Task: inverse folding
């Protein structure tokens, strides 16, 4: 592995740890030339998933985009980087397990929202307000009511624009066989 500091390809591994439920390995390396340390990650390479945007554009799934959004939502909260990374790993696993080739941004947003809500309600409200594109204070009321009441998915249950996240998801939802309720195809 080439050292990111001195660009010499001469290092040794000083520590290896399995992370993300065994789906990846974190390695600490030490450059034998400049004595600096750096971290590398190994992940299983899978066939890429395409994310279908609201305007129907398609781009490759990028976990770093989810990570960046979560970092903003979790800013100044008592949430560690490892918790955020674990959440992203869980969402990534959901996407790769449930979809063969395409997944909507709506589905990804719902997966992130549901997991984040269990982790931290304030970070969840922050994320949801951006993800759901709130433009007025009144749009927060149903969300805050659902969070305050501790209801699992009541906020999304009656929202037809959410793609049937809690009612009618699964094969046969949205009137089509094998649709997951988010506009993506299930395996």
Result:
């Amino acid at each position: 592995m080439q050292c990111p500091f001195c660009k010499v390809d001469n290092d040794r591994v000083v520590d290896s740890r399995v992370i993300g439920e065994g789906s990846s390995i974190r390695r600490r390396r030490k450059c034998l030339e400049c004595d600096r340390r750096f971290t590398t990650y190994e992940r299983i390479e899978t066939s890429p998933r395409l994310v279908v945007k609201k305007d129907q554009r398609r781009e490759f799934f990028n976990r770093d985009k989810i990570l960046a959004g979560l970092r903003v939502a979790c800013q100044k909260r008592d949430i560690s980087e490892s918790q955020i990374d674990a959440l992203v790993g869980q969402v990534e696993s959901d996407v790769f397990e449930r979809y063969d080739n395409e997944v909507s941004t709506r589905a990804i947003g719902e997966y992130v929202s549901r997991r984040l809500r269990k982790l931290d309600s304030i970070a969840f409200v922050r994320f949801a307000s951006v993800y759901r594109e709130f433009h007025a204070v009144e749009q927060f009321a149903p969300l805050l009511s659902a969070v305050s009441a501790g209801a699992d998915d009541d906020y999304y249950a009656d929202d037809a624009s959410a793609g049937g996240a809690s009612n009618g998801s699964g094969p046969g939802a949205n009137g089509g066989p094998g649709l997951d309720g988010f506009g993506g195809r299930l395996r």
About this structure: The longest helix spans residues 81-98.
